[in-house]
């Protein structure tokens, strides 16, 4: 069977003004024949999925397309329904094309994409707008003409520019432990409709399940970060056995409760701060606004970070719960103890978020540029991009994260000197070498794939339950 993409790139090249209805229906008939695999005169969901598999459409998108064209409600499309759908959808696409093509020259450039998104409350840089353009530009002219626009969206059941903007963003952020990434942009319509909070809630639910599932690896990471090579020598396995022997199987989840509890306030504060930063400072660069929002959120919830570290490291019977832990810290060490390690934590936001975002976007759009005309890279490609970018971000910021954790835990370990950030760095380098700054990173990297997998599945089901519909939803962002 000929590829549908090949068919369009070679057959849909006439000017609309010179194409008669007969010629257009002839092309549609050839296309219908290609999709009708069993030659019964009807196209069902399975045939659409097979015929359009390489364009990456979700089952939900194809079901939406069939529902839009299925006038007799029999669950399939005959030729008449198929052509009626294409004709009506082309008209919608034409209106959307003209809305973006503000100067009415028949071509859409990167500036027009940027202006269109900004008019809907979504700020993007010229670089990002150019990347969107390149994913659709088949002939290398650095513009999108009507044919390229139509071919790209013909089988995508988008009905307005708000849906196109959402599709361009390809937004779905997966949580694998610590929310250091840059928040997403949403249009004004999405904010007013409640879509934003439903999506954030779906992400929080996914993060809760994901963090709980990978909590043992997270505890091993924290344990090795704090104790270094002095108390537990050897491999990750030795650390695991030590904790299992000290507190039993349930001890592997120590600190997970507060780690889950802090997801909701951190997400809400970060998103709210991100919106305010963009409005009050006129900062349109997503990374800068995101870093400031991340710093604000971390400042507000940082005491929970300290509690998480202390509870993760606690010995059997040391604390009865979160409240008891907070009470003991306050009585013995004072209020300032809740902000131990705050400075290295704040400093780690910039290198992590910057490198993670830059590497992810570079990998994703490099793939799209090499595979022009593909609707979606697919889950595996994007999860791979996220895993690589997350790893790069961790490698850059991990020494700061390690120092932060040790500063948070210093007062709880007898005989440990209360060192400053710089003194700790120097002490680690002298006693453990450069590798000491990366102690505990192996379990942190090991949890990436299982965390993303669990988070993706939970996110999908929660999103469906909450009615969060995302066209092109396979745009996975990993939050680490």
UniProtKB/TrEMBL annotation:
This is Calcium-binding mitochondrial carrier protein SCaMC-3-like. Gene3D superfamilies: EF-hand, Mitochondrial carrier domain. Belongs to the mitochondrial carrier (TC 2.A.29) family. Its main location: mitochondrion. Residues 23-58, 88-123, 124-159 form the EF-hand domain. Solcar repeats lie at residues 194-278, 279-366, 377-465. It comes from Gouania willdenowi. Residues 1-17 form the signal peptide. The keyword Nucleotidyltransferase does not apply. GO terms for molecular function: calcium ion binding. InterPro entries: EF-hand-dom_pair, EF_Hand_1_Ca_BS, EF_hand_dom, MCP, MCP_dom_sf, MCP_transmembrane. It is found in: Mitochondrion inner membrane. Pfam families: EF-hand_6, EF-hand_7, Mito_carr. PROSITE patterns: EF_HAND_1, EF_HAND_2, SOLCAR. Keywords: Calcium, Membrane, Metal-binding, Mitochondrion, Mitochondrion inner membrane, Repeat, Signal, Transmembrane, Transmembrane helix, Transport. It is a multi-pass membrane protein. GO terms for biological process: transmembrane transport. It comes from the Eukaryota. The keyword Transcription does not apply. One of its GO terms (cellular component) is mitochondrial inner membrane. SMART domains: EFh.
């Amino acid at each position: 069977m000929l590829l549908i993409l090949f068919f369009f790139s070679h057959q849909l090249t006439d000017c609309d003004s010179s194409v008669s209805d007969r010629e257009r229906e002839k092309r549609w008939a050839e296309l219908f024949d290609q999709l009708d695999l069993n030659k019964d005169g009807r196209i069902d969901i399975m045939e659409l999925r097979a015929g359009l598999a390489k364009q990456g459409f979700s089952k939900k998108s194809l079901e939406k397309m069939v529902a839009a064209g299925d006038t007799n409600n029999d669950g399939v499309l005959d030729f008449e329904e198929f052509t009626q759908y294409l004709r009506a959808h082309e008209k919608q696409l034409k209106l959307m094309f003209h809305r973006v093509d503000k100067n009415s020259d028949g071509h859409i450039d990167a500036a027009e994409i940027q202006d269109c998104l900004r008019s809907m409350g979504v700020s993007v840089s010229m670089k990002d707008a150019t990347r969107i353009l390149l994913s659709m530009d088949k002939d290398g002219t650095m513009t999108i003409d009507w044919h390229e626009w139509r071919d790209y969206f013909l089988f995508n059941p988008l009905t307005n520019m708000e849906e196109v903007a959402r599709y361009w963003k390809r937004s779905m952020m997966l949580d694998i432990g610590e929310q250091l990434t840059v928040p997403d942009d949403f249009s004004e319509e999405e904010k007013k409709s409640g879509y934003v909070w439903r999506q954030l809630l779906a992400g929080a639910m996914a993060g809760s399940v994901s963090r709980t599932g990978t909590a043992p690896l997270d505890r091993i990471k924290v344990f090795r970060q704090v104790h270094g090579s002095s108390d537990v020598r050897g491999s990750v396995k030795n650390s695991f056995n030590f904790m299992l022997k000290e507190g039993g199987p349930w001890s592997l989840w120590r600190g997970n409760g507060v780690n889950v509890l802090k997801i909701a306030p951190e997400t809400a504060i970060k998103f709210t701060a991100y919106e305010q930063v963009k409005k009050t400072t006129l900062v349109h660069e997503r990374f800068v606004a995101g870093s400031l929002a991340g710093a604000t959120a971390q400042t507000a919830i940082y005491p929970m970070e300290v509690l998480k570290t202390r509870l993760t490291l606690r010995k059997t019977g040391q604390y009865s719960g979160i409240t008891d832990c907070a009470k003991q810290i306050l009585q013995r060490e004072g209020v300032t103890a809740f902000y131990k390690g705050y400075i290295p934590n704040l400093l780690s936001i910039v290198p992590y978020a910057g490198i993670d975002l830059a590497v992810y976007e570079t990998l994703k759009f490099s793939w799209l540029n090499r595979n022009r005309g593909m609707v979606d890279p697919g889950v595996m490609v994007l999860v791979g991009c996220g895993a690589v970018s997350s790893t790069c971000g961790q490698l850059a910021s991990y020494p700061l994260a390690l120092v932060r954790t040790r500063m948070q835990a210093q007062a709880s370990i007898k005989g440990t000197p209360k060192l400053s950030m710089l003194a700790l760095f120097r002490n680690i380098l002298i006693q453990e070498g450069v590798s000491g700054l990366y102690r505990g990173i192996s379990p942190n990297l090991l949890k990436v794939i299982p965390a993303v997998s669990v988070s993706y599945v939970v996110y999908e089901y929660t999103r469906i339950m909450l009615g969060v519909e995302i066209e092109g939803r396979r745009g996975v962002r990993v939050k680490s």
